[in-house]
Amino acid sequence: MKLKLLLAISFVMVILYGCNKDEVKDVPTNAPADQNASQQTGDTPTDQVTFNFLEFSLDVDYSATESYEVEYENKKSGISAKLQDDRQNVKLQGDEAYTKLEPLFKQLNFDSTTPNDEVIDQVIKVFNIEDNYQSIEVEVEFMDGNEKEFKRLP
Q1: What's the pLDDT score for residue 25?
Q2: pLDDT tens figures, 42-68
Q3: Is 24 in contact with 95 (CB distance < 8 Å)?
Q4: Which of 20, 66, 72, 103 has a CA positioned 20 to 30 A from the CA of residue 2?
């Protein structure tokens, strides 16, 4: 009985640790902020915003086994970031991913009113996406609350 309890506790601890790996711990002072969290702390969102979205997801498929994926979230609970590039064998999470993604995000200047093709063109240029992709999909939650999905097939 004690062994089962010990194994269950160990299993739960491993799961909880794994869930936290993509959280950004070393958040720069100029990192963008969730408007709701900023209002609660008294900061104004414009004081800290360096890009105009709270969530950004990029999925580029090159083949059934090769893709380039980016996930970024800035919520009340904190910032999380992931970057996976199967072609370069890169898998980054948390601070490492954020450090790599922040300068790229700063180059993006689209908003919720930007046409689909302009958004995709910017993402391709900024993230250096190779022309031989099968599909590209970008999902964004903007600071103004709008959520948009942008797609392109070659």
Answers
A1: 58
A2: 333 433 446 889 999 999 999 999 999
A3: yes
A4: 20
Buried b (16+ CB within 10 A) or exposed e, 87-124: eeeeebbbbbbbeebbebbeebebebebeeeebbebbb
Q: Are strands 90-93 and 135-142 parallel, antiparallel or unpaired?
A: unpaired
Written as six digits, the tokens of 149 are: 């999905």
Over the chain, what is the mean pLDDT?
79
Q: Is 139 helix (H, G, I), strand (E, B) or coil?
A: strand
Nearest to 61 by CA among 138, 135, 152: 135
pTM of the predicted model, to two decimals? 0.71
Rounded Cα–Cα distance for residues 31 and 49 (Å): 6
Higher local confidence (pLDDT), 16 or 60: 60
